[in-house]
Write a structure and sequence with these properties.
Elements: H1 7-25, H2 31-50
Length: about 70
């Protein structure tokens, strides 16, 4: 897999996932919405760790810094 996520994108996703996790485990968000957001947060963390977003690929989006030759 070719990386298509830059550092800023990865950091933002990790921060959002952490906020959702904190809100879920402090019972600020709960129920079905809480579970859906927690699963989405897990996906954000996973995609951040591998630096690849499957939704970016079909659209040709890349937030990686361009390498000059």
């Amino acid at each position: 897999m070719k990386k298509n996520m830059g550092s800023a994108d990865r950091i933002i996703r990790i921060i959002i996932a952490a906020i959702v996790g904190i809100l879920y485990f402090t019972d600020t968000i709960s129920g079905t919405l809480g579970l859906i957001l927690l699963i989405l947060a897990g996906i954000f963390v996973l995609t951040s760790l591998i630096s690849f977003c499957p939704l970016y690929a079909p659209f040709g989006i890349s937030t990686c810094a361009l390498k000059e030759k």
